[in-house]
Structures are given as C-alpha cells and as structure tokens.
Amino acid sequence: MELAPCLMHRGRAMKEHNAFVGLDVHKDSIAIAIAEAGRSGEVRFLGEIRNEATAVSKLARKIGRSYPIVLYAYEAGGCGYGLQRQLTGLGQQCLVVAPSKIPRVINDRIKNDRHDAVTLARLLRAGELAAVWIPDEGHEAMRDLVRARHAAADDLRKVRQRIQAFLLRHERRYAGSPWKKMHAVWLGRQQFTHPAQQIAFQGYLSSAAHAAARRDELEGQIRELLPDWSLRPIVDALQSLRGIALITAVTLVAEIGDIRRFQRPAELMAYLGLVPGERSSGAVIKRGSITKAGNSFARKMLVESAWSYRRPARIGVEMGARMPPVADTVREIAWKAQIRLCGRFRRLVARGKKSQVVVTAIARELAGFVWAVSQAVTA
Q1: 14 pLDDT band (50/70/90 cuts)?
Q2: Is residue 209 located within the same domain as residue 293?
C-alpha cells in the first residue's frame, strides 16, 4: 500500500476532508479526538470506546453522519494493523503513523490518552504525520514467520554461548572450528566427574539440538511458502548480490516491504538508519554515527552481508549454485556491486579506518544496490 494521498499532496488533500480523527489505541480501549477542517476548526475530545470491532463500527457510523469525508490516524504499535483494515473495510481512510516522526514539544510535560488523541488529530489536520507502509495480510504473515525463524536462531545462539561458558569453566577447549560435525562428536565425548555436572551439560546439549531443529523447521517452512508470496521475484533477485542468501533476502523484503516504493536509493538508506547523524549550526558542520532509525532487523542483515565484501570480487561455486535464475540486468548490477564494494572495502581498510566503520559504509552502499536490483524487477 502506498502512502495516503494526504501525505503526498498535503495542501490540496487537507481541503478534501471534513474532519480528522486521532485514535490513541490500547489493548482494551481507544481514546478518540476530532479536529474539524480549516485552520480555525474546533479540536475536541470525544471520549473512549472499547477496542472491539462493534464499537469501532459504531464510531465510524456516528462520525460519518456529521462529516462525509473523514481521515483517521493512530500510532503504529503492538496492536498491529487490524484497526486500519477494519476502518478501510468500512470505506474510511486511515493512516498508521510512525511514532518516531511525530513532532514533540520540548516543554510539554503532559502525557495521557486524551492529550495524545487530541495531538494526533491536530497534527493530522496540519499534515505533519508520516504514515508507515501497510503490508497486506499475506506479507504480514511472512514477516511473522521470518521473525519466528530469527527468534529460534537467537535462542540457538544463546544456548551455544551457555555451552561454551560451561566448558570454559571446566577448562575444556576445542581447537577446531566450533559447531561443525567434528565439534559435535567432541561434545558428545565430554564426561564430567560429578553426576550433577553431567546432567547440566546434557541439558544444554538437548536445548541446543531442540533450538537447531526448530530453526531448521522454520527455514523449511519459509522455503515452502515462498513460491506463493507476491514479492518472491524481489527475493530471488536480491540473492544475486554477494552476501545475500535466501534467509537474508527474505528478511530484507519481509521487513522493508516492496522496496520499489522508494523513489531514490538515499530514501532506502535513510529508512534503514544507515545515514550519518548531523548536528550542524552555521559554518560548523558535525556529522556523527549513523542514525539507526527504521527497521533494525533489515539493518542488521545488511551489516552482516557487508562483511563478505572484504574478499576479492568473484562468483564462487556456492554462490553460483544457490543463485536463482534472474534477468541479465540484475546479474550486471550484482557484479557491478561486487567490483565497487570489494574495492571500496579494501581502500577504506588501507586508509586505516576501523573495521566497524568500514562495514557500515559498505552496508550503506549495499542498500543502494539492493534498491537498484529491486527496481530492475518488473512488477
């Protein structure tokens, strides 16, 4: 879903609505405020209703009798997009706005449901709210599955850390690469003198095996459901980029949405929080670390992928085998990305830049190539 027209053509679209409704949504209740059209239109608090479908329908009918064209808005949060979908189904326009981009008054010390609803209604009328991209139900379902897989992978990482800490306390060190086949054999041979320690160690191993099985099961479900996803062509195309395999590509598309909605690569970089922050005044220009705004899942994936560009540009056997069939245009963009990013990684390291600074810079440029590859995919 694209941004609502009121955010693309503010002045004209504001005149098309008779009223603007701010909703402060909670698990059990919704606080409602309304701002009438016009600079001097009245802004008032309407009260609270239960967060139930019947109550929302009754509210929409009641407001619709007095104001023919109404625009609703509420903050993105834990309650999801169900309210937006219900209002849209009732023929109403509703935005889900980004909480981080809501203008705040520095000396405003009041924070309650009534105040928040009134503020939303007033800012909505002024066109000062930024709407988030609304996924359809299929896209949201894939996002939930991808996040479940990452949660399972995080559980596996934590239990492996516990195993390593346990072994280190007992001066058991493995010389080879951990968590490979031979390492699993070595772990199975470990014995401890006290039965309690052996039981604890076996419990850790069982937890690791369960977490690994859960992660693999969810990855299998992702592969099984991917062919029916409307954004699969973008997922396939992104895998032509070095460092972006299936899970990384699915995560990027699931978290960002349809990347083709961004007009320029700089917009995607800013959306992912990969652009430097700035505190400049007059002739003094100060740029600091990246803003880290936007989606942390997608940003983390790009930073991890950026490490693969520390080696010379090439298409290895593994990458060639996993890469789905894509258009020649996409392959050309991917190869251009390798040439540029591998060379830039090497030059930045030679200049003495810290490794994390280098990787962040490569991740920012990689986001630009992700945008270019997505634009090359036909809708």
Answers
A1: low
A2: no
